[in-house]
Amino acid sequence: MPRHDHFSTRSIHVGSEPDPSTGAVVPSLSVATTFRQEGVSKPLRGFDYSRSSNPTRSDLESLLTSLETCPSATVANDARHDASGGESLVFASGSAATAAIAHWVTLNKEEGGAGGKDGKGFGGHILAVNDVYGGTARYLSRASRPTGLEVTYLNMEKAGEKGIREAIRPDTKLIWLELPTNPLLLVPPVRLISDIVHSLPSETRPLILVDSTFLSPYYFTPLIPTNGEHPLADITMSSLSKYSSGHSDIILGSLTISPTTNKLRPELIKGLRFLQNSMGASPSPRDCHLMIRSIKTLSVRMIKHGLNALRISNWLSTKTNLIEKVRYPGLKTDNAFEYVQDLISKNAKRELEFLGWKFPFNKENKDFDIDVDETNLEFTRNLGIPFGGMITFTIKNANSKQVEKFCTELRISILAESLGGVESLIEVPYGMTHAHLPQETLNELNITPNLIRLSVGIEDYEDLIEDLEQALEIAMGTEKATVD
């Protein structure tokens, strides 16, 4: 009888089988670099050298595959192993995962690659959303040049169906999306893009990759089909260093292939395993072991990140006249909100329904009591839908010195790059994560010196608001940051 384990149960148990020799409920950490073989080229359990594969890494890969691809009804009977048919690969960093999948585009077909421009390797084309993480843009546009890779950056919201179809070339092997994008928190029309791609011949169509780092599989699972349709994506990429780690103490990255794509394109996993081994971007087993531990609390952390971010984005939008251009896709006044209703995972919906949310979300809730206290959960439910912990905003008419003053006067939120930790982190993309982009690109994307990216942690909401308020007052020289 197939089991019916949900997200939190799987995040705790898949890949965490008690040690068979001691009974320890925490799986052993395998630090060995090499493994005894039963005969010539006859490794035990398939392990021969830890750069190629390692038991602890394999446990983490099984866990990630389950969370990214596995519907609740598809779990092994022992509840410890993934049974979805998907595959995951863990790398030493998110950037290493980026390098591997980009190199796969240019790899010849004999090695399992996409074949590049003509099937023999070298060249090939990636169509990417125009607002991507700065490190992704750096690799695709600069580091990959010797491979002949060509990249087109497209504003897919403005392009529409006609523009997207015209941008797909005969040698387009991959469509690269972020959801939401970094740093502007745009939500590309992923369902439209998926429908366009699946209207093309299945054997030669480009694959769709979604970088879901900002959401984690808790909020977004594009590899799981909905309503009997095809999955929205073929591959998810994640910087596990962020929400999956959750404590700003591990650097790892991953690629996960959907079960559907794994059957349709079996050469994909072959090529990626070849690159993972050949490029040497293998993760430390110690980091994998710690990541397995961290993911066990992913769901309880993500719901608090989302609740805090929803409330703070509302405060920034309505309670101060020093802030403008607030972006949080889960806020019902955000331009991307209608997409969020369609994209949020079944798991997140299930947990939010327990907290009183109703789907589809009613933006014009006539039953809402406008006099309800803002500390009441009913008030929060009327603001929108928790959807990750990332917010962007601009400080109105602030110059660079005022922006820096704001960031350094914060008592709780820390001025630092990265995101997704239990602690709130704040940064200025123009001068930090995206500073290496050409000025023309920064202008085009409207990444300005007064744009702030806030990774909302799981501290108490009241303390975070008080901290933001006092830093704004000091930076902008005003007695009161809030409006009545």
UniProtKB/TrEMBL annotation:
Gene3D superfamilies: Aspartate Aminotransferase, domain 1, Type I PLP-dependent aspartate aminotransferase-like (Major domain). GO terms for biological process: cysteine biosynthetic process via cystathionine; transsulfuration. This is cystathionine gamma-lyase. Residues 1-24 are annotated as: Disordered. The modification N6-(pyridoxal phosphate)lysine is found at K242. Residues 451-478 form a coiled coil. The lineage of its organism: Eukaryota, Fungi, Dikarya, Basidiomycota, Agaricomycotina. Its EC number is 4.4.1.1. InterPro entries: Cys/Met-Metab_PyrdxlP-dep_enz, PyrdxlP-dep_Trfase, PyrdxlP-dep_Trfase_major, PyrdxlP-dep_Trfase_small. GO terms for cellular component: cytoplasm. Keywords: Amino-acid biosynthesis, Coiled coil, Cysteine biosynthesis, Pyridoxal phosphate. The keyword Lyase does not apply. It comes from the Eukaryota. Pathway: Amino-acid biosynthesis; L-cysteine biosynthesis; L-cysteine from L-homocysteine and L-serine: step 2/2. Pfam families: Cys_Met_Meta_PP. Its cofactor is pyridoxal 5'-phosphate. One of its GO terms (molecular function) is cystathionine gamma-lyase activity. The keyword Nucleus does not apply. Belongs to the trans-sulfuration enzymes family.
